[in-house]
Design a protein that fits this description.
- There is one protein chain.
- α12 crosses α17 (327-337).
- A hairpin with a 4-residue loop joins β1 (21-24) and β2 (29-32).
- It is globular, with a radius of gyration of 22 Å.
- The chain folds into 2 domains: 47-224 and 341-365, Orthogonal Bundle (Citrate Synthase, domain 1), CATH 1.10.580.10; 231-337, Cytochrome p450-Terp, domain 2.
- 43% of the residues are buried.
- The chain has 18 helices and 3 strands.
- The chain is mainly alpha-helical.
- Bound molecules: carboxymethyl coenzyme *A.
- Carboxymethyl coenzyme *A (CMC) binds at residues 9, 193, 196, 227-229, 231, 256, 264-271, 320, 322, 325-327.
- The site of carboxymethyl coenzyme *A has 21 residues, from loops.
- Belongs to the citrate synthase family.
Length: 392
């Protein structure tokens, strides 16, 4: 029809019906398939949560077992894929590596192109869940100039990731259960967030019937940006700058209010949450617990707390309903685990993967699904005549 409704940034536009995640931004409510995030964070684990998101129900013991074993079967990368890493510059950002290598999975698993073959689609999901931590850990090893460490299927998902990150052939890495638990919790709270930028990207690309690897690779690209998943890296960089500047948080709060300089408080504000971000509450509590347990006194944690206190009392932030979001404290936890800053968004991607898979599957399973194809309001020139180059 001729009438186009314009909603820049999609503030009020629903792109789909979905039964995966419920969000109430005014009340700070987040539920996966009906289960409150607080309860999942306290009682579930990441793989069980992934199953819940993808298949719609919590697994029984046999289903959970089958799922875990199914994922474990695929943790190795094809040996030829290791050679990709030789081609990347050593200082390549790991998000760039992640998105490239995930995209390249469809060159190795060409049977993934057949989207009508349900079994193949399921195997592609298992492959992604299993290989993303391996691909991620290899990107870190590459940056360190260390040999890749093969996955160890005796370990659980989070332990195995820490093992591949930090073990070397010269030194075994004893995975600290507190570290694995913290990682597990971070993955759960990142696992889905309805139609966010990267999930919408996965759906957008997937709506053309592109294969799962291509769709997820695109989602990783979307997540990388500092307004989305890249905020966790940007946030810690900002906290470091403030700490190095004598911890003068007021100066940075004032800077964030000034529209001229383009500076924003990273880890602050959210499109949907206008009261508080329930994920930030869970993460802050975990952060305090972990730092206390490790007897770590991270100055960045103090800077973050002070920044939060000052900003939350400031008229500018109150008026605009800006609160700390999921990325505000997550970086402090990653630091405590020894994860380097440029890997933070990669960890977000590992956490968000089940959500992307669930949405991709939901879309494909919807009868009468159509390609996503927004319209526009054209603002360019009206029709005009072509001018030859020598007359321009
Ligand atoms: N610092 C200073 N001002 C801000 C901030 C901030 N972090 N966030 C929003 N504002 C202001 C913004 O300038 C605007 O002011 P005005 O109405 O005077 O023009 C108002 O608040 C509304 O902001 P918006 O940009 O229209 O809001 P949005 O819904 O388009 O953007 C956001 C949401 C998350 C991109 C934004 O709050 C932001 O840039 N935050 C910093 C980056 C960040 O932490 N991102 C992670 C989001 S949570 C994890 C995830 O989902 O990826």
């Amino acid at each position: 029809t001729g009438v186009i409704t314009l909603d820049e940034g999609f503030v009020n536009t629903g792109s789909t019906r979905s039964s995966i995640t419920f969000l109430n931004g005014e009340k700070g409510v987040l539920r996966y398939r009906g289960y409150p995030i607080e309860e999942l964070a306290a009682k579930s684990d990441f793989i069980e949560t992934a199953y819940l998101l993808i298949f719609g129900e919590l697994p029984d013991a046999a289903q959970a077992d089958e799922f875990r074993v199914g994922i474990r079967e695929h943790t190795m990368l094809h040996e030829d894929m290791r050679t990709f890493y030789n081609g990347f510059p050593r200082d390549a950002h790991p998000m760039a590596i992640l998105s490239s290598v995930v995209g390249a999975l469809s060159t190795f698993y060409q049977d993934s192109m057949d989207l009508n073959d349900e079994k193949q689609v399921e195997i592609s999901m298992y492959r992604l869940l299993a290989k993303l931590p391996t691909i991620a850990a290899y990107s870190y090893k590459k940056s360190m100039g260390q040999p890749f460490i093969y996955p160890n299927n005796e370990l659980d998902y989070c332990e195995n990731f820490l093992h591949m990150m930090f073990a070397t052939p010269a030194r075994d890495y004893m995975v600290d259960p507190d570290f694995a638990e913290a990682l597990n919790l971070l993955f759960i709270v990142h696992a889905d967030h309805e139609q966010n930028c990267s999930t919408s990207t996965v759906r957008m690309v997937g709506s053309s019937n592109a294969n799962l690897f291509a769709s997820i690779s695109a989602g990783i690209g979307a997540l990388w940006g500092p307004l989305h998943g890249g905020a966790n890296e940007a946030c810690v960089n900002m906290l470091e700058t403030i700490a190095a500047d004598g911890g003068n948080v007021k100066k940075y709060v004032d800077m964030a209010k000034d529209k001229e300089n383009g500076f924003r408080l990273m880890g602050f504000g959210h499109r949907v949450y206008k009261n508080f971000d329930p994920r930030a509450t869970i993460i802050k509590a975990t952060c305090e617990k972990l730092l206390a347990k490790l007897q770590l006194d991270d100055p960045l944690f103090h800077v973050a707390q002070e920044l939060q206190d000052v900003a939350l009392k400031d008229e500018y932030f109150i008026e605009r309903k800006l609160y700390p979001n999921v990325d505000f404290y997550s970086g402090v936890i990653y630091r405590a685990l020894g994860i380097p800053v440029d890997m933070f968004t990669v960890l977000f991607a590992i956490g968000r993967l089940p959500g992307w898979l669930a949405h991709w599957k939901e879309m494909h399973d919807t009868p009468g699904k159509r390609i996503n194809r927004p319209r526009q309001v054209y603002t360019g020139s009206t029709a005009r005549e072509f001018v030859p180059i020598n007359e321009r």
